[in-house]
Design brief:
With 797 residues, chain A is an alpha+beta fold. Chain A contains 18 helices and 32 strands. Classes of the chains: A alpha+beta (797), B alpha+beta (186).
């Protein structure tokens, strides 16, 4: 039984800030998960199903000389071995990426990163498929790899994409935002200018469930049913129609329960395509589920930005301008999933939360011999990198000016009355009250006391650090006229059906990976129609059952799909009004709504509940002219602008002077995501993101050696925080609704991942101030911290 | 080879390849898919089951090694339709999001509470430190286990199951309100 507690999340907050839709209720999806009855991709077993496994390249850069599959094919349990040559015959050797590039499905000419897909075995069981990989003989002619992005544009750099006719270098794009001349002029006359190079290292979202698919091609009807771990089922359907040449109405994508995504499950990976090919070739369903090393080495990555930041200010601490040059390592194929017009995503939000006179950024994307990808890890389209840059630069400026970093931020915030605020790179921030969030965070942290404690500890040689980060996100992409992915506008649909007995089904285009959509979206309908959430079923993840839309990533579900759901419920409410008027024999304009019913103005006893109206809509009464006999509606929501959540984070660390080990003692997170729906789910999203932040700031990195060997290819080497590395999170909130969103919600999924890394690094650098440390790159591992304390160069990990 | 073991109280006997891992045996031979798999290196703990009451990572136990032993998976946590307090606690305190690590976390929690009915937060963190959750940030898992510790008979699944509290919902509401109070509003 779902226990519903109808109450305010914080009685002291009053009506204005009360969460909507019954507030903190238990999640509707939990009963199946706590019983072990979720349905994840690897749980799916179809009659006659076969298992696929991928042979991967052991080297980063090599000509493919030959592949001999004879012995593998002779294995008694092997049904097929597919190579690049086979795919060339099917015109499937290369597939379009989400960034208008192409990616090799299987190597035909040259290996371009370690772990790249070379051959695909289909066998009776998963053990046999793995055995057969060992029986494939491949000869490689090894080439020098390009590992360091800084050398990608050198004249003698190995050319990675030599298959593209006319290509002579490794540059993917140059992209600029802001006014360079105006920015240079402000810098030229500024009292103080500080600059710093910083690296946001390559990391990986590494959801607990790896990526996988089960392809089931029905040759008789020509229909492909593809079960896959995707955050964007509808976009995948369209892309599969383009890639595989199967008509789109003959493709059904089903995304089952997903064991975490964080962006890792946005892209279309070779394994998905190979499962489809395997099913077509064998005539039987084929399952492919990657192992953890495949996940870490091949299916996407995140970040990998080398950023040169500069900040200009007056000597009394008025920040004037920011500029940055970025070198973006995109790996061997440009497979990042950014909106078409934004090759560096929304990095241009690097102006942050400050009222600047000028700003300019330039991003250069390059190919290297590393895995492709680049959208992933809860990054809000590169907002993570942008926030890290500006929040580190502001701290470095504070050190230079000998100002308190909180005071410097408070002095430069965009003021509440300046919203909507047009920044210098083209964004219009919707709403905000930054000072209130900052002051609340400082109050929760006991900021002044912490500074006093730090002074006392420093006197004793103890290394305590306090780090602040204030972030502004840009999420909810986005208006169709500005944002698309491979030509598909970034809108989302919703369909709502109220059944005759007043129970409802809402169908979404977005797909949960654990965010609780089945609860949150039911709550939005509940708020709008007065039907309790337990009487509303949420359907998602199946393209045959749901309206078109672009899916869940970039914190866009509540800002976009949430808008669609609110509007579709309002459409049903308006239809209900017409029917209620007919039932009450009055005019619609004489009716008034209260949650769950329409009644006659001035006569509250004369009313019809949504249940009464639903039965009447499907019954025998004569309906008003133009009203269909149902209580259903559908909408596609094209948001008028993005939304701009923000937050004020304070981190307290203790650094062990004997080992360089960093302990996060406290973390205080104040978030403003606009109107709140389920505070429990919001808090959970924040906690998860903060943990990501500890991982990136202190532990996680995908590093490569000089030969292009991936040094983070398993959980033995790619370290993720456990319960021992993170503190008991302290959270708070302010509520500044978005003025343009139907319910004022802004999105929360990625705020903490975006906002927390700079707070932690700022704290570490603050702790190391006695050693003269001004900056250190993530992850701040004990070896790196120790080196920084000794004034030595940063070791690789 | 032929193996026999007890799984969730049922005697099972199967013919298997000697190399089959316990996680694959449980999932693919017995069809109990609540036990998950998440890494190849015994680091993530999504595959944790209880062997003779002790948490083990079933990706690094051969099915053959489990022969003759008593195995408990997430499917064996509830008593019929009555949830174990740990399962109820995870729902009350938002101890799960995507649900993938959850079965392993709950089984470790059950083993901890069987040994130590009133652990402190540090003991809970220590107990789950061999398991990774990518969604929750762990604090709500700690709260979930504490909820279960505070309500040993709330859902009737643990010891004293026959003393099911009247007015469980009231207790639930009080606990949840405390959680809300941990957030502070401007």
């Amino acid at each position: 039984m779902t226990v519903i507690h109808e109450r305010e999340s914080n009685p002291a907050a009053g009506d204005a800030d009360r969460p909507i839709g019954y507030g903190r209720i238990q999640r509707k999806e939990d009963p199946r998960f706590v019983r072990g009855k979720g349905h994840y991709i690897d749980d799916l077993v179809l009659p006659g199903m076969l298992h696929g496994a991928i042979l991967r390249a052991p080297v980063a850069h090599a000509r493919l000389v030959s592949i001999d599959t004879t012995n593998a094919l002779a294995h008694p349990k092997v049904l097929a071995v597919i190579t690049g040559k086979d795919l060339e015959g099917l015109k499937l050797a290369w597939a379009p990426t989400l960034s208008a590039d192409v990616q090799a499905v299987l190597v035909t000419d040259k290996v371009r990163f370690q772990g790249q897909e070379v051959a695909f075995v289909v066998a009776e069981d998963r053990y046999a498929a793995r055995d057969a990989l060992e029986l494939i003989d491949v000869e490689y002619d090894v080439l020098p790899p390009l590992v360091d992005a800084r050398k990608a544009l050198d004249a003698d750099a190995p050319l990675i994409r030599d298959e593209i006719e006319g290509r002579t270098d490794n540059k993917i794009f140059d992209w600029e935002m802001g006014d360079a001349a105006e920015t240079d002029a402000v810098f030229a006359s500024a009292d103080v200018v500080v600059s710093q190079e910083m690296v946001y290292p390559r990391v990986h979202p590494a959801p607990m469930e790896t990526c996988g698919a089960v392809a089931d091609f029905d040759a008789v009807n020509g229909k492909l049913t593809l079960y896959e771990t995707t955050q964007a089922p509808h976009a995948h359907r369209t892309l599969f129609a383009i890639v595989a040449g199967i008509p789109e109405h003959k493709i059904r994508i089903v995304s089952p329960d997903i064991g975490g995504g964080f962006g890792n499950k946005v892209g279309i990976y070779p394994g998905y395509i190979l499962a489809v090919v395997g099913s077509i070739v064998t005539g039987r369903p084929v399952k492919w589920v990657e192992d953890r090393s495949e996940n870490l080495m091949s299916t996407s990555f995140a970040r990998d930005y080398i950023m040169q930041g500069e900040i200009a200010a007056t000597k009394d601490g008025k920040i004037l301008a920011l500029r940055t040059n970025v070198l973006a390592d995109h790996g061997a194929f440009n497979a990042t999933a950014q909106p078409t017009k934004n090759p560096a995503g929304f990095f241009s939000i690097f102006t942050g939360s400050y009222d600047l006179q000028a700003a300019h950024c330039k991003v250069t994307g390059v190919y290297t011999n590393k895995a492709p990808g680049g959208v992933a890890y809860a990054c809000s389209f590169r907002v993570t990198e942008a926030v890290y840059l500006v929040e580190r630069m502001v701290d470095i400026l504070a050190r230079k000016l000998e100002m308190d970093p909180a005071e410097l931020r408070l002095k430069n915030f965009i003021k509440p009355e300046q919203f909507p605020y047009a920044n210098k790179t083209g964004w219009v921030y919707d709403s905000g009250n930054y000072e209130a969030a900052m002051r609340l965070s400082m109050q929760l942290a006991g900021y002044e006391d912490l500074r006093r404690e730090q002074l006392q500890k420093r006197a004793k040689g103890e290394l305590m650090g306090i780090g602040i980060s204030f972030f502004t996100e840009v999420v909810g992409a986005g208006p169709r006229k500005h944002f698309d992915i491979v030509g598909l506008g970034m809108a989302d649909g919703a369909e709502l059906r109220v059944h005759p007995t007043g129970k409802a089904v809402v169908r979404l285009s977005v797909q949960s990976q654990g965010q609780g959509h089945e609860t949150t979206f039911a709550q939005i309908v509940a708020e709008e129609l007065g039907i309790p959430p337990e009487n509303i079923d949420v359907v998602h993840g199946d393209t045959d059952q749901t309206p078109f839309g672009l899916g869940t990533y970039g914190s866009r579900s509540t800002p976009v799909s949430g808008g669609a759901v609110a509007l579709v419920a309002r459409k049903v409410r308006e239809k209900a009004k017409l029917i209620a008027a007919a039932m009450l024999e009055t005019r619609p304009e004489d009716l008034e709504w209260e949650k769950g019913r329409w009644f006659v103005k001035g006569d509250p006893t004369a009313g019809k509940t949504i249940e009464d109206i639903a039965m009447a809509a499907h019954g025998t009464m004569t309906l008003p002219e133009g009203v269909d006999g149902n209580l259903d509606a559908e909408v596609t929501y094209d948001p008028p602008n993005l939304t701009f959540p923000f937050g004020a984070y304070i981190c307290v660390v203790d650094v062990d002077p004997g080992t360089g080990h960093v302990k996060v003692r406290r973390f205080i997170a104040v978030d403003d995501c606009g109107t709140r729906i389920n505070p429990m789910i919001i808090e959970g999203q924040v906690h998860g993101g903060l943990t990501d932040g500890v991982g990136m700031a202190l532990m996680e990195i995908i590093e490569f050696d000089a030969d292009g060997n991936n040094l983070g290819g398993s959980f033995m080497d790619y370290l993720i925080p456990t319960a021992m590395e993170v503190p008991d999170w302290e959270t708070g909130f302010t509520v500044t609704p978005s003025p343009h969103h139907p319910i004022g919600a802004k999105g929360i999924g990625e705020s903490a991942t975006v906002g927390s890394p700079p707070a932690i690094v700022n704290a570490v650098v603050d702790a190391l101030a006695p050693f003269g440390v001004v900056h250190m790159d993530m992850p701040c591992t004990p070896a790196r911290v120790w080196a920084a304390m000794q004034g030595r160069a940063t070791p690789p990990i | 080879m032929q193996i026999s073991m007890t799984v969730n109280g049922n005697e099972v006997t199967s013919e298997i390849e000697p190399r089959v891992l316990l996680v694959h045996y449980i999932r693919e031979v017995l069809g109990l898919t609540g036990t998950h798999w998440g890494c190849d290196t015994s680091n993530c703990g999504t595959c944790v089951v209880l062997m003779d009451g002790q948490p083990v990572k079933s990706c690094t136990v051969l099915a053959a090694m489990a022969a003759g032993h008593d195995i408990r998976t997430v499917e064996g946590l509830a008593a019929g339709t009555t949830l174990d307090p740990v399962q109820q606690g995870f729902m009350e305190e938002h101890g799960l999001q995507c649900g993938f690590c959850t079965p392993g976390m709950m089984l470790t929690a059950r083993a901890l509470l069987d040994k130590n009915p009133h652990p402190d937060d540090g003991e809970i963190r220590q107990a789950i430190s061999g398991q990774i959750c990518r969604c929750t940030g762990y604090a709500t898992i700690v709260r979930s286990v504490q909820w279960a510790a505070a309500h040993p008979a709330a859902a009737g699944g643990g010891e004293g199951a026959d003393e099911v509290l009247d007015g469980t919902d009231t207790v639930v509401a009080d606990v949840a309100t405390e959680t809300e109070d941990s957030e502070v509003k401007a």
